[in-house]
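Lab notes, practical 5.
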Amino acid sequence: MLASQAASGDYKAATAQASFTVYPATPTLSFSVPDQTYGAAPFTVSATSNSPGAITYSIVSGPATISGNTVTLTGLGRVTLQASQAATNNFTAAAIQTSFTVFSQSLTTITALTSTTATIDVFGFGFTPPSGQLAFTDVTADRPVAAPVTLDTSTATTTLTPQTTTSTGADTLPVWTTLGDINGDGKQDLVTSLYLTDSISVQLGNGDGTFQTATTILIAAGFGPAECHLVSLRGNGTQDLIVGSFNTNQIAVLVGKDDGTFEPPVFYTVGTSTNTPTSLTTGDFNNDGHLDVAVANTFNDTISVFLGDGSGGLTPLGAPLSTGRTPQAIRSGDFDGDGYSDLAVANYNDGTVTTFLNNRNGTFTANTLSVGSGAGSGPQALAVNGSGTSLLLAVANYKDNTVSVLTSKGDGTFGAQKIIGVGKGPDDVNFADFNGDGIADLVVANYTDDTADLLLGGGSGNYALVGPFAVGDSPYSAAVGSLNVDGTPDIVVSNCFSNNTGVLLDGTQISVPYSGLSLIPGHTLRATYTPDSASKYGSSTSPDAIAPSTAGSFNHITGRVR
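Output from the prediction step:
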């Protein structure tokens, strides 16, 4: 700048110069994102600023991805986003961060309704009870049916959602389900044995309890696939598939490609021509670090062991070993704590379980245990959990309608069985911790009465039956795995004669009863759960229900009076 002063009386004219720098201003950025519930559709974010500079967005941390300004949630927890603004002539570059929490889903349902009473369930997809308030509203009259209720978390129970089914196709007869991550995306995928089409179906998981459209793989004409299991025969984490047969004396091995597909099946003959190797399991039977395979030879009354070579190939280990009559299931575990895998076999027509203790030299020592009521109990399925003196062996006794649980003594023998009554025709059993208390629980598929049961472990050898949960026609298996991001074990059953699979999601529920109501027939009713600050869940609103007449009752499936 130049300052010029004119001359006057005693002063001549003069000038002076001064300089200064104008710096770009710092933008005023504003950026916030409200808390979210997992399962919400991808959403856009936007920061505001007094600068015209371009703004880009990125994930700093947390279970989410971003493309442009569209955020996709990938899990539960705290997400931090950053908005970065480019410099302009008049403004500097700037950045701002904001955080939000992704909560698990909740589900609110009006499950029972008369003209004077109601029951509303609030289900949280997780181990903790849903806390907060429940509002019950007459939408037609625009007024509360009753005052808001604060949920009593002491009444919370572990339960399962009603099954959601997916057709496997007409006349497919799905007989077995197994879960594993076959494309390496961290989500559980589903493989189902389809007996009548001699094939397996592969469905990639979406991570929210649902699966993508199935791809079908033919095993071989006439094969009649039975049990199938996803395991890493090569020890590299990539899931391979082993499949038993109801019709032939072969098992099939399909090596996984880690992209959701498999190499063509390789077949291994097991037993005589009359044999059907319906059940199979894996373990390290020679302690070489590679998974091996053991097979129950149902109509040979034997088992066979195959040693894995670490590349997906199998070699028979000696001659088959004799068991009891009609071995229907085989599972492995370390029963005596020596680091070698042992075996348990369910002998259906003897009412026994034969254990095979590994002698660490390629041979096994057999021991037979009576289970259930004995000879007529029909042991059909097995599950093994834990190790040492904490190892548990569960047996589904098909003819007894019971499950036997035996605790290992740590030396290869077991204590007295604990017998628990379940539904009719228990056909599969699996361990998992369904209520998050650190104690192994059980799920049971009841083939005859079309149900599933949960048996919650009490820590002292006792089990509490929760259920039954209705499923489809003749559930033959119940696979267990966490299908969504809540960390709880979920269930997929194979409903044989319904030609579908059924998904039941695990969680924690509070039921709220109402009485003394004066509902107006025909009015639309709605329930809304609002979480408090301690809750791990997002809000949810029930499907609308219609208030019944005095004589009517409410069907929570259709939402209509019946």
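Observations recorded by the TA: The CA atoms of residues 36 and 402 lie 44 Å apart. Confidence is low (pLDDT under 50) at residues 557-562.
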